[in-house]
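Listing S7. Sequence submitted for prediction.
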Amino acid sequence: MVEILAIIGATIAGASVISNDAVQTLGTFMSSNKSTQWWKLWIAASLVAIFAILWSWFNYSGDITFGRLDKIPLIEIQWYHIAAPVILLSLTRFGIPVSTTFLVLSVFSTGVIFEKMLVKSVMGYAIAAVVAYLIWVGVSWLINERKKIPPKQERVWRTLQWITTGFLWFTWLSHDLANIAVFLPRQLDVFYLSFVLILVVSMLALIFYQGGGKIQDIVSSKSSTRFVRSATIVDFVYAAILLVFKEWSNVPMSTTWVFVGLLCGRELAIATWHKRKAKRVLPVVVKDLMKVFMGLAVSVVLVVVVQFLKGELN
């Protein structure tokens, strides 16, 4: 029964994580490659995902999370643990980019670990916003995306974008695979490894076929994400920030908060450069931030409910 609950939890978590956070990572890639057949994009993303999972599995003695769950011990899965990814999947249907890390891992974490995750995620948001603002002030001065670039330059940028997306996708997986694997044994055997590989590749196929779903609308609504140069720079900055936090500590963090902070700083920089009125940009920034805090609020409620249920059942 416990194994069945673990597989059900991991399946729903996989569907939730890929449809919510993965689209935030691959969204600019989809936006700027709409002319490319979806299955080609899917194969490229799947190959990177398979490589990342196998790399961690071999180098971390069967652990596919890059050590992200070292501070979260394996516990017996109960029905209420599955409530977190179910709620996440529901919120994703409404296009709300909530944090899968808070929503899924919070029900497995102690109060101390949850606090550390929150502090690390807030730092990620702030650093991403500041870095994005500074970079895009310079980018706006150097690049005019609306000006058509020569075919040779476009091919170079297109190649750079595919490479950068692969780097970002690998780095993102090193953070968020923990949100799926938390339901499974910390060291996976071949059966569980095969299960995760099939789950991730299948969910990626669905997401690419659907063009990203509701969460993709948030990415597409941001300035210039459909242009290859902007998309490449967004992906590289995002990946660099995630890599720094990955090496900093094994405490899980919300990649969603980094993503929203990045887009926030970028939108403010573009508005500053083009002298747009703040009343046009601030509502967008505040709206995205409120969605992030909605996910945090739901996570806190879940933690309280789970602790209550534990007390009642014990």
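Caption to Listing S7: primary sequence and predicted structure tokens for the chain studied. The radius of gyration is 19 Å. The mean pLDDT is 79.
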